[in-house]
Amino acid sequence: MSGPANGEFLVQFRVKGRRRVNQANTKETNIDTKAGADEKLSATSFLGMPGIFNGLAEQNVIRAKENIEKVKVASGAVNDALREAYSANAKGTADYAAKLIEFSSANTSSAFDFLSHLLGLKSPSEILQLSAAQGCKNFEATTAQSRELWQLTRKIATETADPLKKSFASALQQAA
User: For the whole model, what pTM was predicted?
Assistant: First the structure.
């Protein structure tokens, strides 16, 4: 067998018919001078391959830079959404704390009113009647306060989650 000068190897692709070239029908050999007329040969110098790989590498670098820019934009949008969500959560937490202080004040005033009325009573029946009325009043107040706190909690959760949902939906649309 005689090969190319300078010990170069050639990569030959033998393609029969219209089949695609893949690993199953390619092989690396020295020049085959006995190839039939029905076979089409495509020979590329092995030393010429780095030029092809350089082109592919350049394309991959360009794609990587584009993807990095996309990630920067997306991360900036996510950071903005997190900042907005944190702000909404902080405001909601302050509102919740203010509501708890308001309820504590109302409950403390109610307890002092009950005690002041209780001290002015003389008969046990009046004491029992006032205690029962105070119990009903406390139960109604606690129920209303719990309902109000639950609604405030749902509002805070919604306001906190909305910026995140919008940001992630936008990011998914841009990725698609």
Answer: 0.57
